[in-house]
Inverse folding.
Protein backbone atom coordinates (compact mmCIF):
# COMPACT_ATOMS: atom_id res chain seq x y z
CA UNK A 1 0.00 0.00 0.00
CA UNK A 2 2.82 2.34 0.78
CA UNK A 3 4.41 1.77 -2.58
CA UNK A 4 1.30 2.63 -4.53
CA UNK A 5 0.71 5.68 -2.39
CA UNK A 6 4.22 6.82 -3.02
CA UNK A 7 4.32 6.24 -6.73
CA UNK A 8 2.46 9.42 -7.54
CA UNK A 9 -1.09 8.20 -7.88
CA UNK A 10 -1.66 9.27 -4.31
CA UNK A 11 -1.72 12.81 -5.57
CA UNK A 12 -4.67 12.12 -7.82
CA UNK A 13 -7.54 12.70 -5.39
CA UNK A 14 -6.05 15.96 -4.13
CA UNK A 15 -5.23 17.21 -7.61
CA UNK A 16 -8.64 16.28 -8.98
CA UNK A 17 -10.45 17.79 -6.05
CA UNK A 18 -8.55 21.05 -6.32
CA UNK A 19 -8.96 21.19 -10.06
CA UNK A 20 -12.69 20.56 -9.98
CA UNK A 21 -13.33 22.39 -6.78
CA UNK A 22 -11.34 25.52 -7.39
CA UNK A 23 -9.97 25.98 -10.87
CA UNK A 24 -13.08 24.87 -12.70
CA UNK A 25 -15.35 27.18 -10.68
CA UNK A 26 -12.98 30.02 -11.40
CA UNK A 27 -13.21 29.31 -15.10
CA UNK A 28 -16.96 29.06 -14.80
CA UNK A 29 -17.00 32.35 -12.98
CA UNK A 30 -15.11 33.93 -15.83
CA UNK A 31 -17.49 32.32 -18.32
CA UNK A 32 -20.44 33.61 -16.34
CA UNK A 33 -19.07 37.13 -16.54
CA UNK A 34 -19.38 36.87 -20.30
CA UNK A 35 -23.05 35.90 -20.19
CA UNK A 36 -25.96 38.22 -20.66
CA UNK A 37 -28.29 38.80 -17.74
CA UNK A 38 -31.42 36.67 -17.63
CA UNK A 39 -34.37 38.02 -19.46
CA UNK A 40 -36.88 35.94 -17.62
CA UNK A 41 -36.45 33.50 -14.74
CA UNK A 42 -33.04 32.30 -13.73
CA UNK A 43 -29.71 33.85 -12.97
CA UNK A 44 -28.34 34.38 -16.41
CA UNK A 45 -28.94 33.67 -20.07
CA UNK A 46 -27.19 30.36 -20.77
CA UNK A 47 -25.18 30.17 -23.92
CA UNK A 48 -24.90 33.88 -24.46
CA UNK A 49 -21.68 35.74 -25.09
CA UNK A 50 -21.33 39.42 -24.37
CA UNK A 51 -18.89 41.98 -23.12
CA UNK A 52 -21.56 44.23 -21.69
CA UNK A 53 -20.74 43.32 -18.12
CA UNK A 54 -17.20 44.49 -18.55
CA UNK A 55 -18.47 47.64 -20.18
CA UNK A 56 -20.55 48.26 -17.09
CA UNK A 57 -17.43 47.91 -14.99
CA UNK A 58 -16.33 51.26 -16.33
CA UNK A 59 -19.25 52.73 -14.42
CA UNK A 60 -17.95 55.35 -11.95
CA UNK A 61 -19.53 53.50 -9.02
CA UNK A 62 -17.62 50.34 -9.77
CA UNK A 63 -14.45 52.24 -10.49
CA UNK A 64 -14.74 54.02 -7.16
CA UNK A 65 -15.34 50.72 -5.41
CA UNK A 66 -12.29 49.24 -7.08
CA UNK A 67 -10.17 52.23 -6.09
CA UNK A 68 -11.41 52.05 -2.53
CA UNK A 69 -10.70 48.31 -2.47
CA UNK A 70 -7.11 48.90 -3.52
CA UNK A 71 -6.48 51.66 -1.00
CA UNK A 72 -8.25 49.83 1.78
CA UNK A 73 -6.60 46.52 0.99
CA UNK A 74 -3.09 47.92 0.85
CA UNK A 75 -3.64 49.85 4.06
CA UNK A 76 -4.82 46.71 5.79
CA UNK A 77 -1.73 44.94 4.48
CA UNK A 78 0.66 47.63 5.66
CA UNK A 79 -0.86 47.83 9.13
CA UNK A 80 -1.01 44.04 9.40
CA UNK A 81 2.62 43.64 8.51
CA UNK A 82 3.73 46.40 10.86
CA UNK A 83 1.65 45.04 13.70
CA UNK A 84 2.60 41.50 12.79
CA UNK A 85 6.30 42.24 12.77
CA UNK A 86 6.12 44.03 16.11
CA UNK A 87 4.21 41.09 17.57
CA UNK A 88 6.60 38.56 16.08
CA UNK A 89 9.61 40.40 17.50
CA UNK A 90 7.91 40.54 20.86
CA UNK A 91 7.12 36.82 20.76
CA UNK A 92 10.62 36.02 19.63
CA UNK A 93 12.10 37.40 22.80
CA UNK A 94 9.82 35.42 25.11
CA UNK A 95 10.54 32.11 26.75
CA UNK A 96 9.13 29.03 25.09
CA UNK A 97 6.25 28.98 27.53
CA UNK A 98 5.62 32.66 26.92
CA UNK A 99 5.64 32.03 23.20
CA UNK A 100 3.10 29.28 23.59
CA UNK A 101 0.80 31.54 25.58
CA UNK A 102 1.34 34.38 23.15
CA UNK A 103 0.48 32.26 20.14
CA UNK A 104 -2.59 30.91 21.89
CA UNK A 105 -3.77 34.46 22.50
CA UNK A 106 -3.04 35.31 18.91
CA UNK A 107 -5.02 32.41 17.51
CA UNK A 108 -7.85 32.78 19.98
CA UNK A 109 -9.93 35.11 17.81
CA UNK A 110 -9.47 32.69 14.94
CA UNK A 111 -11.07 29.88 16.85
CA UNK A 112 -13.90 32.10 17.93
CA UNK A 113 -14.81 32.42 14.32
CA UNK A 114 -15.17 35.48 12.19
CA UNK A 115 -18.71 36.24 13.24
CA UNK A 116 -18.08 36.13 16.95
CA UNK A 117 -15.07 38.39 16.50
CA UNK A 118 -17.15 40.87 14.54
CA UNK A 119 -19.73 40.78 17.26
CA UNK A 120 -17.10 41.83 19.75
CA UNK A 121 -15.67 44.62 17.67
CA UNK A 122 -19.14 45.93 16.92
CA UNK A 123 -19.66 46.33 20.61
CA UNK A 124 -16.64 48.52 21.11
CA UNK A 125 -16.45 50.60 17.98
CA UNK A 126 -19.05 52.56 16.12
CA UNK A 127 -19.54 51.89 12.47
CA UNK A 128 -17.08 53.63 10.28
CA UNK A 129 -13.95 53.36 8.21
CA UNK A 130 -11.72 52.98 11.25
CA UNK A 131 -13.80 50.12 12.60
CA UNK A 132 -13.74 48.34 9.26
CA UNK A 133 -9.98 48.77 9.06
CA UNK A 134 -9.44 47.51 12.60
CA UNK A 135 -11.72 44.57 11.93
CA UNK A 136 -9.89 43.48 8.81
CA UNK A 137 -6.48 43.98 10.35
CA UNK A 138 -7.67 41.89 13.28
CA UNK A 139 -8.50 39.07 10.87
CA UNK A 140 -5.38 39.37 8.79
CA UNK A 141 -2.43 40.17 11.03
CA UNK A 142 -2.20 36.76 12.79
CA UNK A 143 -1.02 35.28 9.51
CA UNK A 144 1.74 37.89 9.28
CA UNK A 145 2.78 37.06 12.80
CA UNK A 146 3.05 33.38 11.97
CA UNK A 147 5.08 34.00 8.82
CA UNK A 148 7.39 36.54 10.45
CA UNK A 149 7.80 34.55 13.63
CA UNK A 150 8.85 31.51 11.62
CA UNK A 151 11.35 33.64 9.75
CA UNK A 152 12.78 35.13 12.93
CA UNK A 153 13.25 31.67 14.37
CA UNK A 154 15.33 30.73 11.35
CA UNK A 155 17.92 33.37 12.12
CA UNK A 156 21.01 31.70 13.46
CA UNK A 157 21.27 32.74 17.10
CA UNK A 158 25.04 32.41 16.95
CA UNK A 159 25.19 35.49 14.77
CA UNK A 160 23.28 37.47 17.33
CA UNK A 161 25.56 36.25 20.08
CA UNK A 162 28.62 37.12 18.03
CA UNK A 163 27.33 40.60 17.32
CA UNK A 164 26.59 41.18 20.96
CA UNK A 165 30.05 39.91 21.84
CA UNK A 166 31.55 42.39 19.40
CA UNK A 167 29.81 45.17 21.27
CA UNK A 168 26.77 45.87 19.09
CA UNK A 169 23.83 47.54 20.75
CA UNK A 170 20.37 45.98 20.51
CA UNK A 171 19.27 48.55 17.98
CA UNK A 172 22.34 47.88 15.84
CA UNK A 173 21.73 44.15 15.95
CA UNK A 174 18.19 44.72 14.84
CA UNK A 175 19.02 47.14 12.08
CA UNK A 176 21.96 45.27 10.62
CA UNK A 177 21.15 41.61 11.13
CA UNK A 178 17.54 40.95 11.99
CA UNK A 179 15.91 43.44 9.68
CA UNK A 180 17.79 42.56 6.47
CA UNK A 181 17.27 38.88 7.13
CA UNK A 182 13.58 39.49 7.66
CA UNK A 183 13.11 41.25 4.38
CA UNK A 184 12.00 38.26 2.25
CA UNK A 185 9.56 37.23 4.95
CA UNK A 186 8.28 40.79 5.22
CA UNK A 187 7.55 40.76 1.52
CA UNK A 188 5.74 37.45 1.77
CA UNK A 189 3.77 38.71 4.76
CA UNK A 190 2.83 41.86 2.87
CA UNK A 191 1.71 39.92 -0.18
CA UNK A 192 -0.33 37.54 1.92
CA UNK A 193 -1.91 40.39 3.84
CA UNK A 194 -2.59 42.25 0.60
CA UNK A 195 -4.40 39.22 -0.80
CA UNK A 196 -6.60 39.04 2.26
CA UNK A 197 -6.96 42.79 2.45
CA UNK A 198 -8.04 43.24 -1.15
CA UNK A 199 -10.61 40.51 -0.66
CA UNK A 200 -11.99 42.15 2.47
CA UNK A 201 -15.61 41.35 2.97
CA UNK A 202 -16.78 40.93 6.53
CA UNK A 203 -14.96 43.95 7.91
CA UNK A 204 -16.33 46.55 5.52
CA UNK A 205 -19.72 44.86 5.39
CA UNK A 206 -20.43 44.75 9.11
CA UNK A 207 -18.27 47.50 10.47
CA UNK A 208 -18.12 50.05 7.72
CA UNK A 209 -20.67 52.42 6.36
CA UNK A 210 -22.38 51.53 3.08
CA UNK A 211 -20.14 53.85 1.14
CA UNK A 212 -17.14 51.87 2.31
CA UNK A 213 -17.85 48.95 0.04
CA UNK A 214 -15.03 46.84 -1.25
CA UNK A 215 -15.30 44.76 -4.40
CA UNK A 216 -16.21 41.66 -2.40
CA UNK A 217 -19.08 43.45 -0.73
CA UNK A 218 -20.14 44.87 -4.06
CA UNK A 219 -20.33 41.65 -5.98
CA UNK A 220 -22.03 39.87 -3.13
CA UNK A 221 -24.67 42.56 -3.09
CA UNK A 222 -24.93 42.49 -6.87
CA UNK A 223 -25.52 38.76 -6.80
CA UNK A 224 -27.87 38.41 -3.86
CA UNK A 225 -29.70 41.70 -3.72
CA UNK A 226 -29.89 42.68 -7.36
CA UNK A 227 -29.77 39.19 -8.82
CA UNK A 228 -27.44 40.33 -11.57
CA UNK A 229 -25.15 37.34 -11.57
CA UNK A 230 -23.18 37.96 -14.76
CA UNK A 231 -22.25 41.44 -13.58
CA UNK A 232 -21.34 40.07 -10.15
CA UNK A 233 -19.12 37.52 -11.87
CA UNK A 234 -17.44 40.28 -13.82
CA UNK A 235 -16.78 42.19 -10.61
CA UNK A 236 -15.40 39.05 -8.98
CA UNK A 237 -13.14 38.56 -11.99
CA UNK A 238 -11.95 42.12 -11.58
CA UNK A 239 -11.08 41.39 -7.97
CA UNK A 240 -9.19 38.27 -8.96
CA UNK A 241 -7.33 40.30 -11.55
CA UNK A 242 -6.28 42.74 -8.85
CA UNK A 243 -5.08 39.88 -6.70
CA UNK A 244 -3.05 38.52 -9.56
CA UNK A 245 -1.49 41.93 -9.99
CA UNK A 246 -0.64 41.99 -6.31
CA UNK A 247 1.04 38.62 -6.43
CA UNK A 248 2.97 39.31 -9.59
CA UNK A 249 3.59 43.02 -9.29
CA UNK A 250 4.65 43.46 -5.70
CA UNK A 251 7.91 41.51 -5.81
CA UNK A 252 9.08 43.45 -8.84
CA UNK A 253 8.36 46.73 -7.12
CA UNK A 254 10.29 45.62 -4.07
CA UNK A 255 13.25 44.50 -6.11
CA UNK A 256 13.76 47.74 -7.97
CA UNK A 257 17.44 48.62 -7.75
CA UNK A 258 18.42 52.21 -6.95
CA UNK A 259 18.13 54.32 -10.07
CA UNK A 260 21.03 56.62 -9.47
CA UNK A 261 24.51 55.50 -10.34
CA UNK A 262 27.48 57.72 -9.64
CA UNK B 1 -4.15 42.38 22.60
CA UNK B 2 -6.91 39.95 21.94
CA UNK B 3 -10.04 39.07 23.75
CA UNK B 4 -12.87 36.58 23.51
CA UNK B 5 -15.57 38.61 21.83
CA UNK B 6 -18.37 36.41 22.94
CA UNK B 7 -17.84 37.35 26.54
CA UNK B 8 -19.02 40.84 25.70
CA UNK B 9 -22.70 40.47 25.12
CA UNK B 10 -25.23 43.18 24.59
CA UNK B 11 -26.03 45.14 27.75
CA UNK B 12 -29.24 43.32 28.78
CA UNK B 13 -27.16 40.34 29.79
CA UNK B 14 -25.70 42.01 32.85
CA UNK B 15 -28.05 39.64 34.59
CA UNK B 16 -26.51 36.22 34.11
CA UNK B 17 -29.13 33.84 32.97
CA UNK B 18 -29.30 30.64 31.06
CA UNK B 19 -32.43 31.81 29.36
CA UNK B 20 -30.73 32.19 26.00
CA UNK B 21 -28.95 28.87 26.27
CA UNK B 22 -32.32 27.34 26.92
CA UNK B 23 -33.72 29.02 23.87
CA UNK B 24 -30.90 27.68 21.76
CA UNK B 25 -31.41 24.19 23.07
CA UNK B 26 -35.10 24.17 22.29
CA UNK B 27 -35.36 26.05 19.00
CA UNK B 28 -35.33 23.38 16.30
CA UNK B 29 -33.83 25.72 13.76
CA UNK B 30 -30.78 26.47 15.85
CA UNK B 31 -30.44 22.87 16.93
CA UNK B 32 -30.65 21.72 13.36
CA UNK B 33 -27.98 24.18 12.35
CA UNK B 34 -25.74 23.12 15.21
CA UNK B 35 -26.15 19.47 14.35
CA UNK B 36 -25.49 20.21 10.70
CA UNK B 37 -22.37 22.21 11.49
CA UNK B 38 -20.93 19.48 13.68
CA UNK B 39 -21.71 16.73 11.24
CA UNK B 40 -20.32 18.65 8.31
CA UNK B 41 -17.22 19.60 10.26
CA UNK B 42 -16.46 15.98 11.12
CA UNK B 43 -16.99 14.83 7.55
CA UNK B 44 -14.89 17.68 6.22
CA UNK B 45 -12.12 16.79 8.62
CA UNK B 46 -12.10 13.15 7.56
CA UNK B 47 -12.37 13.88 3.87
CA UNK B 48 -9.66 16.51 3.68
CA UNK B 49 -7.19 14.39 5.66
CA UNK B 50 -7.98 11.32 3.56
CA UNK B 51 -7.29 13.24 0.38
CA UNK B 52 -4.30 15.22 1.59
CA UNK B 53 -2.32 12.34 3.14
CA UNK B 54 -1.67 10.24 0.02
CA UNK B 55 -0.82 13.39 -1.84
CA UNK B 56 1.72 14.45 0.75
CA UNK B 57 3.24 10.98 0.84
CA UNK B 58 3.43 10.66 -2.93
CA UNK B 59 4.82 14.09 -3.49
CA UNK B 60 7.80 13.52 -1.26
CA UNK B 61 9.57 11.36 -3.79
CA UNK B 62 9.18 13.78 -6.63
CA UNK B 63 12.00 15.92 -7.94
CA UNK B 64 12.06 19.56 -6.91
CA UNK B 65 10.37 21.25 -9.87
CA UNK B 66 7.20 19.14 -10.12
CA UNK B 67 6.98 19.18 -6.37
CA UNK B 68 6.99 22.94 -6.23
CA UNK B 69 4.45 23.04 -9.06
CA UNK B 70 2.12 20.72 -7.21
CA UNK B 71 2.46 22.68 -4.01
CA UNK B 72 1.58 25.88 -5.81
CA UNK B 73 -1.35 24.17 -7.49
CA UNK B 74 -2.81 22.85 -4.27
CA UNK B 75 -1.99 25.79 -2.03
CA UNK B 76 -3.10 28.58 -4.34
CA UNK B 77 -6.80 28.18 -3.53
CA UNK B 78 -6.07 29.04 0.08
CA UNK B 79 -5.17 32.55 -1.02
CA UNK B 80 -8.31 33.23 -2.98
CA UNK B 81 -11.02 35.30 -1.36
CA UNK B 82 -13.67 32.91 -0.07
CA UNK B 83 -16.35 35.17 -1.51
CA UNK B 84 -15.04 34.61 -5.02
CA UNK B 85 -14.88 30.89 -4.35
CA UNK B 86 -18.47 30.87 -3.21
CA UNK B 87 -19.49 32.90 -6.23
CA UNK B 88 -17.85 30.35 -8.48
CA UNK B 89 -19.05 27.25 -6.68
CA UNK B 90 -22.70 28.22 -6.60
CA UNK B 91 -23.45 27.84 -10.33
CA UNK B 92 -21.38 24.65 -10.47
CA UNK B 93 -23.17 23.10 -7.54
CA UNK B 94 -26.49 24.17 -8.92
CA UNK B 95 -25.79 22.46 -12.18
CA UNK B 96 -24.75 19.19 -10.59
CA UNK B 97 -27.49 19.35 -8.01
CA UNK B 98 -25.35 19.85 -4.94
CA UNK B 99 -26.59 23.30 -4.05
CA UNK B 100 -28.52 23.28 -0.78
CA UNK B 101 -27.34 19.81 0.22
CA UNK B 102 -25.20 18.66 3.10
CA UNK B 103 -22.93 16.68 0.77
CA UNK B 104 -22.26 19.80 -1.20
CA UNK B 105 -21.21 21.69 1.91
CA UNK B 106 -18.93 18.89 3.02
CA UNK B 107 -17.30 18.93 -0.38
CA UNK B 108 -16.96 22.69 -0.39
CA UNK B 109 -15.51 22.82 3.12
CA UNK B 110 -13.13 20.00 2.29
CA UNK B 111 -11.96 21.91 -0.76
CA UNK B 112 -11.27 24.89 1.47
CA UNK B 113 -9.51 22.83 4.13
CA UNK B 114 -7.46 20.73 1.73
CA UNK B 115 -4.64 23.23 1.12
CA UNK B 116 -4.05 23.69 4.83
CA UNK B 117 -4.28 19.98 5.63
CA UNK B 118 -1.88 19.36 2.79
CA UNK B 119 0.52 21.99 4.08
CA UNK B 120 0.53 20.46 7.55
CA UNK B 121 0.99 16.92 6.32
CA UNK B 122 3.66 17.59 3.73
CA UNK B 123 5.88 19.24 6.31
CA UNK B 124 5.65 16.08 8.41
CA UNK B 125 6.66 13.76 5.57
CA UNK B 126 10.40 14.18 5.57
CA UNK B 127 13.65 12.37 5.07
CA UNK B 128 13.50 10.60 8.38
CA UNK B 129 10.27 8.93 7.47
CA UNK B 130 11.52 7.72 4.12
CA UNK B 131 14.68 6.47 5.74
CA UNK B 132 12.83 4.50 8.39
CA UNK B 133 10.46 3.10 5.80
CA UNK B 134 13.41 1.92 3.73
CA UNK B 135 15.01 0.30 6.74
CA UNK B 136 11.82 -1.52 7.61
CA UNK B 137 11.39 -2.73 4.05
CA UNK B 138 15.00 -3.84 4.00
CA UNK B 139 14.41 -5.85 7.17
CA UNK B 140 11.66 -7.73 5.39
CA UNK B 141 8.48 -5.86 6.27
CA UNK B 142 5.69 -5.96 3.72
CA UNK B 143 4.42 -2.62 2.36
CA UNK B 144 1.31 -3.01 4.48
CA UNK B 145 3.38 -3.54 7.62
CA UNK B 146 5.53 -0.54 6.80
CA UNK B 147 2.46 1.62 6.49
CA UNK B 148 0.72 0.55 9.66
CA UNK B 149 3.75 0.24 11.90
CA UNK B 150 6.02 3.04 10.72
CA UNK B 151 4.36 5.59 8.46
CA UNK B 152 1.09 5.71 10.36
CA UNK B 153 2.40 6.21 13.88
CA UNK B 154 5.01 8.71 12.79
CA UNK B 155 2.44 10.76 10.94
CA UNK B 156 -0.09 10.61 13.71
CA UNK B 157 0.60 14.03 15.27
CA UNK B 158 0.41 15.71 11.88
CA UNK B 159 -2.75 13.79 11.03
CA UNK B 160 -4.34 14.86 14.28
CA UNK B 161 -3.33 18.47 13.75
CA UNK B 162 -4.66 18.50 10.20
CA UNK B 163 -7.91 16.88 11.28
CA UNK B 164 -8.42 19.38 14.08
CA UNK B 165 -7.62 22.38 11.89
CA UNK B 166 -10.04 21.15 9.22
CA UNK B 167 -12.71 20.64 11.84
CA UNK B 168 -12.35 24.13 13.28
CA UNK B 169 -12.21 25.64 9.83
CA UNK B 170 -15.42 23.98 8.76
CA UNK B 171 -17.23 24.82 11.96
CA UNK B 172 -16.49 28.51 11.59
CA UNK B 173 -16.81 28.71 7.84
CA UNK B 174 -19.28 31.40 6.95
CA UNK B 175 -18.26 33.06 3.71
CA UNK B 176 -18.48 30.23 1.20
CA UNK B 177 -21.32 28.64 3.15
CA UNK B 178 -23.21 31.86 2.68
CA UNK B 179 -23.35 31.19 -1.02
CA UNK B 180 -24.13 27.51 -0.71
CA UNK B 181 -26.64 27.22 2.10
CA UNK B 182 -30.38 27.35 1.70
CA UNK B 183 -33.14 26.63 4.17
CA UNK B 184 -32.40 22.95 3.66
CA UNK B 185 -28.84 22.86 4.81
CA UNK B 186 -28.18 25.66 7.24
CA UNK B 187 -24.98 25.65 9.20
CA UNK B 188 -24.58 27.58 12.39
CA UNK B 189 -22.51 30.41 10.91
CA UNK B 190 -24.98 30.73 8.04
CA UNK B 191 -27.78 31.13 10.54
CA UNK B 192 -25.84 33.59 12.65
CA UNK B 193 -25.02 35.77 9.70
CA UNK B 194 -28.38 37.32 8.86
CA UNK B 195 -29.21 37.52 12.54
CA UNK B 196 -26.04 39.45 13.20
CA UNK B 197 -26.78 41.74 10.35
CA UNK B 198 -30.42 42.50 10.89
CA UNK B 199 -31.67 41.34 14.27
CA UNK B 200 -28.94 40.62 16.76
CA UNK B 201 -30.23 38.74 19.73
CA UNK B 202 -28.24 37.15 22.51
CA UNK B 203 -29.02 33.80 20.97
CA UNK B 204 -26.49 34.72 18.35
CA UNK B 205 -23.94 35.24 21.07
CA UNK B 206 -24.80 31.88 22.55
CA UNK B 207 -24.38 30.15 19.22
CA UNK B 208 -21.06 31.86 18.77
CA UNK B 209 -20.09 30.78 22.24
CA UNK B 210 -20.80 27.20 21.34
CA UNK B 211 -18.59 27.21 18.27
CA UNK B 212 -15.96 29.14 20.14
CA UNK B 213 -15.97 26.65 22.96
CA UNK B 214 -15.54 23.75 20.60
CA UNK B 215 -12.77 25.48 18.73
CA UNK B 216 -11.04 26.57 21.90
CA UNK B 217 -10.73 22.96 22.96
CA UNK B 218 -8.53 22.42 19.96
CA UNK B 219 -6.29 25.38 20.62
CA UNK B 220 -3.71 23.84 22.99
CA UNK B 221 -2.90 21.09 20.51
CA UNK B 222 -2.32 23.51 17.70
CA UNK B 223 -0.15 25.87 19.70
CA UNK B 224 2.09 23.12 20.96
CA UNK B 225 2.66 22.03 17.39
CA UNK B 226 3.65 25.48 16.21
CA UNK B 227 6.09 26.29 18.96
CA UNK B 228 7.85 22.97 19.42
CA UNK B 229 8.58 22.24 15.78
Amino acid sequence: MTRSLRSGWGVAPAAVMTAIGVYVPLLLLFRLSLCAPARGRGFYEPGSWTLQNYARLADPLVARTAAFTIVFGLTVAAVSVALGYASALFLYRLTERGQRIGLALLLLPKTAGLLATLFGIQYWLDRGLFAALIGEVYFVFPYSVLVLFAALRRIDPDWLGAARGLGASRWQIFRRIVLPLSRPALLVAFQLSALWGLGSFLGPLFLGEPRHSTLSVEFHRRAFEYGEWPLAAAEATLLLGLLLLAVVGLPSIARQPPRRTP
Amino acid sequence: MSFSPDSYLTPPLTRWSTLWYHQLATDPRWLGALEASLLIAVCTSVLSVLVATPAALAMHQWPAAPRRGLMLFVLLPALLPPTAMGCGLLPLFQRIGLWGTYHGLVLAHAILALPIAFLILQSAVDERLAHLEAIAAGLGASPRQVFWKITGPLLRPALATAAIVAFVLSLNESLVSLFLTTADNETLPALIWPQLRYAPTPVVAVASAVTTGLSLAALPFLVRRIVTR
Q: What stands out?
A: Confidence is low (pLDDT under 50) at residues 1-5, 257-262 of chain A. The first strand of chain A starts at residue 36 and ends at 37. Chain A touches chain B through 70 residues (CB under 8 Å). Chain A is about 75% helix and 0% strand.
